[in-house]
Write a structure and sequence with these properties.
Layout (H helix, E strand, L loop, with lengths): L2 E5 L4 H12 L3 E6 L2 H13 L4 E6 L8 H12 L4 E4 L7 H6 L1 H29 L3 E5 L12 H22 L4 E7 L20 H13 L4 E4 L3 H10 L2 H4 L5
Parallel strand pairs: 1-2, 1-4, 2-3, 4-5, 5-6, 6-7
């Protein structure tokens, strides 16, 4: 039995991961800001076989509330074996270009709040000297594209932070996994014109995430073919890249 902390637990990918962990009989501590949705998620996971499901309501942008969340988690489970940070938004790039306040708020949600949580949780796991810390970043962070470079910038910051954190925590027996999904069919992507053959379901991505955490993967593209796609995109020379409509 493992004790799993999930932040952003009501997101589609996080919920799909939680269901897999629940079916394995694990204990779950769920964190989200929507109380009603979190209650429904917790009830669903209990029916699916979770040993116990704890709930904590928090807006990740309220950084001063992070320590109390960790204290509540430890009071409920005593130890944390797996942490999944899965919250985020998909900002309107044009709105971010028009309004600096919007841009900074979106960066705070997708970048700053994640780094704040990573810092707090990393310190705990380092003291604990065991555990896995997984973070949902994005393929968007691999290269700045005009269609979503504010979002990509935040995810690039998270990915780079995780790379340094991975090297630091490895020495303490803690593993850090950076998860980079491509197109996923979630409420966040509804209405976008996505190439359907390249769109994965949350369940497909969740299977890869759970397996990747178990195998202590460092960087995990989901689905796996995105590793090749992003290798090609990163290899495009800048004079050509800036002329592409990506």
């Amino acid at each position: 039995m493992k004790r799993v902390l999930i932040i952003g637990a009501t997101s589609a990918i996080a919920t799909a991961c939680a269901r897999l962990w629940a079916e394995q009989g694990n204990e779950l501590f769920l964190v989200a800001r929507n109380e009603e949705k979190l209650q429904h998620t917790a009830a669903d996971l209990s029916v699916r076989g979770a040993k116990a499901v704890h709930q904590h309501y928090m807006d990740v942008n309220h950084l001063d509330e992070h320590p109390a969340m960790l204290e509540s988690c430890l009071a409920a489970m005593q130890q944390i074996d797996i942490i999944l940070i899965a919250h985020g938004t998909l900002p309107d790039q044009k709105a971010c270009e028009r309004d600096t306040k919007v841009a900074l708020q979106e960066f705070a949600t997708n970048g700053t709040s994640v780094i704040a949580l990573l810092s707090l949780l990393a310190n705990h796991l380092e003291t604990q000297r065991c555990g896995s810390l997984a973070v949902i970043s994005s393929v968007a962070g691999d290269r700045g594209r005009p269609s979503n470079y504010l979002y990509g910038t935040a995810k690039a910051a998270v990915s780079t932070f995780c790379e340094g954190l991975r090297a630091r925590l490895f020495k303490a027996g803690v593993y850090v996994t950076t998860i980079k999904p491509g197109f996923v069919d979630t409420p966040m992507t509804q209405g976008l014109a996505l190439p359907r053959p390249m769109v994965a379901t949350p369940e497909q991505v969740a299977i890869r995430i759970v397996k990747g955490i178990n195998s202590k993967a460092a960087v995990l593209y989901a689905p796996g073919f995105w590793a090749l796609i992003m290798l090609i995109i990163r290899s495009i020379p800048q004079p050509i890249f800036k002329r592409l409509n990506l």
